[in-house]
Specification:
The complex is a heterodimer of chains A (127) and B (190).
Chain A (H helix, E strand, L loop, with lengths): L4 H15 L20 H15 L5 H4 L2 H5 L4 E2 L2 E2 L1 H10 L6 H5 L12 H12 L1
Antiparallel strand pairs in A: 1-2
Helix pairs in contact in A: 1-2, 1-7
Chain B lengths: L7 E6 L3 E7 L5 H5 L9 H17 L7 E12 L8 E12 L2 E10 L2 E13 L11 H10 L2 H4 E2 L10 H23 L3
Parallel strand pairs in B: 1-7
Antiparallel strand pairs in B: 1-2, 2-4, 3-6, 4-5, 5-6
Classes of the chains: A mainly alpha (127), B alpha+beta (190).
């Protein structure tokens, strides 16, 4: 799903400011943690900048559904179950979970979010 | 060496803004040691002073029990050096506060002139980092009194903020313990 140029450009500006990365590093496919080097505290900064830039409210649970990732009904042997994946898809329709689904290790969830995902999330909030 | 880079609160509005002052003295070792022969107040200590101002501002509402640590210096722009004899005003304004952390914007002035602009992020540590606070409450209370925080602190409606009861209780317990230990040591034969 394509994201609007305006949303991408504002998200890109927020990430450049918060993470000190160059604009050519912030591509739609770049992952927040793996490619852009975001650490947990950076998300506080990123969320603040997105809220300010788009006039939206972002709940941390929207981006990191901790309850799903820690509940035994959704996680077994360190992997998210099929029920858990279904719940994640319901809660995060804007996220591309296809790669994560192939080997849904909880420890890899943190590196799931891409710039495109973030743009689609913002679009879902301003729609 | 004491690690306090603010001298006194002159303004404190819960979760909103706080201003502290810091008098820079040639008698402080870092002033001359940082760049011998060219005494000035190190930029890192300006950041630390703002972190102390902002950190106390964002942790007050929880009775100073929130384990608050400086997590990120997002912006630090220094316009002019601060030298012995200067009185610094450090103003922290809360930009955002969430259950896991907060962001403040800081402005540092001397004689009304902006000397530095900062943006700091604080993380609120959860119980994985220990169940108790980062400082003994009776010690922190003593520091807050020295900094005159309770002399100026108000909530958003202008009501005075007093020392939290848990800190006062910790202080009473510590005093009782001290008196008892003195009594025991004095009763021992020489």
């Amino acid at each position: 799903m394509q994201v609007s140029e305006e949303v991408f450009s504002k998200v890109q500006a927020a990430l450049i400011d918060a993470l000190g990365v160059d604009d050519d590093e912030v591509t739609p496919q770049a992952t927040m943690v793996g490619d852009l080097g975001a650490e947990s505290i950076d998300f506080l900064d990123i969320v603040f900048k997105l809220e300010k830039s788009f006039g939206i409210k972002v709940a941390t649970e929207d981006l990191f559904p901790k309850d799903i990732l820690t509940e035994s009904t959704y996680v077994q042997d360190g992997k998210v179950t099929a029920t858990g994946i279904a719940e994640l898809k319901k809660r995060m329709p804007w996220a591309d979970l296809s790669k994560f689904e192939t080997n849904p290790r909880v420890q890899d969830f943190g590196d799931l979010l891409t710039v495109s995902d973030l743009c689609r999330y913002v679009e879902s909030k301003i729609a | 060496m004491r690690w306090f880079w603010i001298d006194r609160f002159i303004e404190f509005v819960r979760n909103t803004r706080a201003t502290t002052i810091k008098n820079v003295s040639f008698g402080e070792e870092p002033i001359d040691d940082y760049l011998p022969g060219h005494p000035h107040y190190p930029h890192s200590l300006i950041i630390e002073g703002m972190a102390q101002t902002g950190g106390l501002l964002v942790s007050e509402e929880g009775g100073f029990q929130t384990k608050t640590v400086l997590a990120k210096v997002s912006k630090a722009v220094f316009h002019e050096l601060i030298v012995p004899g200067d009185q610094i005003f450090l103003t922290a304004v809360v930009q955002d506060k969430k259950p896991n952390g907060a962001i403040i914007e800081g402005t540092v002035t001397v004689n009304g002139q902006v000397r530095a602009e900062l943006e700091l992020s604080f993380a609120f540590l959860d119980d994985r980092f220990g169940e108790t606070g980062l400082f003994p409450p009776e010690d922190l209370l003593r520091t807050l009194r020295i900094l005159k925080l309770f002399d100026v602190a108000v909530d958003q409606n202008g009501n005075r903020i007093h020392a939290p009861e848990h800190m006062l209780e910790a202080e009473r317990l510590a005093a009782r313990g001290f008196i008892q230990s003195r009594a025991i040591s004095q009763s021992k034969p020489v």
